[in-house]
Design brief:
- GO terms for molecular function: serine-type endopeptidase activity; tripeptidyl-peptidase activity.
- This protein is mainly alpha-helical.
- The chain has helices at residues 7-16, 38-51, 73-80, 103-117; strands at residues 26-28, 58-60.
- It has 2 domains: 1-61, no CATH class; 64-120.
- Strand 1 (26-28), helix 2 (38-51) and strand 2 form a beta-alpha-beta unit.
- The radius of gyration is 15 Å and the shape is globular.
């Protein structure tokens, strides 16, 4: 997805809005803090702002889009099964248009979402 966040920008955001200074607990996958993206930065900043530090926050980043140009949701979802501790909450601000993915890909993503949600 080629979007990154900056820990320094997060500290500035937390200070500006009087929030506790809490770093991201886990970052899995690539993150280039010298090249933060607007989308990723806003996601991280506002998630930290509303979670009231009551949940551990993770950032999980995957590679760029798939060869077909779609977001790598299946890669992300499959990767969750490799974690010993999975996040309790997932927030995504990316989408694919349903007509741009194959039915088998959509069904595979649906299966992974269902398997993940069954974990509680």
């Amino acid at each position: 997805m080629n979007q990154y966040y900056s820990p320094n920008d997060l500290v500035d955001f937390e200070k500006d809005f009087g929030l506790p200074l809490v770093p991201i607990a886990n970052t899995i996958g690539p993150n280039d803090p010298t090249d933060p993206g607007i989308e990723a930065s806003l996601d991280v900043q506002y998630l930290m702002g509303v979670n009231n530090c009551s949940i551990e926050t993770w950032v999980i980043s995957t590679a760029l889009t798939t060869p077909s140009g779609n977001e790598p949701f299946l890669t992300f979802l499959s990767g969750l099964s490799n974690l010993t501790q999975v996040p309790y909450l997932i927030s995504m601000s990316y989408q694919d248009y349903e007509y741009t993915v194959s039915e088998s890909y959509a069904q595979s993503c649906n299966q992974e979402f269902m398997a993940y949600s069954l974990q509680g």
